[in-house]
Amino acid sequence: MQLARTRTRTRTRTRTRTRSSVRRLALTAVALGLAVAAPAAAAQASTTHGTHPAAPTQSAGSVHGDHTTGAEVPQAAGSVRSGDPQSTVDRVADFYGAYIDVVWDARNDDLRNGLREHYLTSGFRTKLAAWEAAQHADGVLRAQDNPIGWQVTADGGGAGHAFSTVRLTWGNPSSPYYTYLKVQSDLATKQISDIEDQ
Fold first, then answer.
1. Contact 59, 149 (CB under 8 A)
2. How far apart are CA 197 and CA 79, in angstroms?
3. Is the Cβ–Cβ distance between 192 and 180 less than 8 Å?
4. Angle at the Cα of 13 (from 12 to 15), degrees rounded to 5?
5. Model pLDDT for residues 130-173, shown as the tens digit of each residue
6. d(CA 115, CA 142)
7. In 3D, which of 86, 84, 117, 87 has the Cα closest to residue 99?
């Protein structure tokens, strides 16, 4: 009888300890969740009430913001950049963003050529090399200098292709000027198959 009572007490203590441990874990998880959520909410609130004026509203997915250097450029409060790997216009924007970063940072040619190999069709790379040899300029940018920003807009499609307009920003951020390129992408591969001045 004494042994049965001892076993019952031991089981009760074990259950109580287990319940206490579970409660402690649950409270710790809640506390950690609040510790993470509170700073994130504060950061979101501070960006929502920032001093930058809001940028003009544009339809989602059709335009990628003009990525210029310097903090002086007005941007939407809490602006978000996103993309879709199955969207040809997003791929064009991804390519130009990465390519201009590499050119701007004066990185090595291997990285620049790697981007070309990934984003451009092999036939267009051959055509581009011939254009560059004749023009002594970068065929992707259609220039010898480095732009300070870029913007990509979807521009229709047809016959297995999608078209995008790329606006490159040049000069001084306080008085910029722009050039425009028409970029053709193959819908089957999502790769860029032509770039022309517009």
1. no
2. 30
3. no
4. 65
5. 999 999 999 999 999 999 999 999 999 999 999 999 999 999 99
6. 16
7. 117
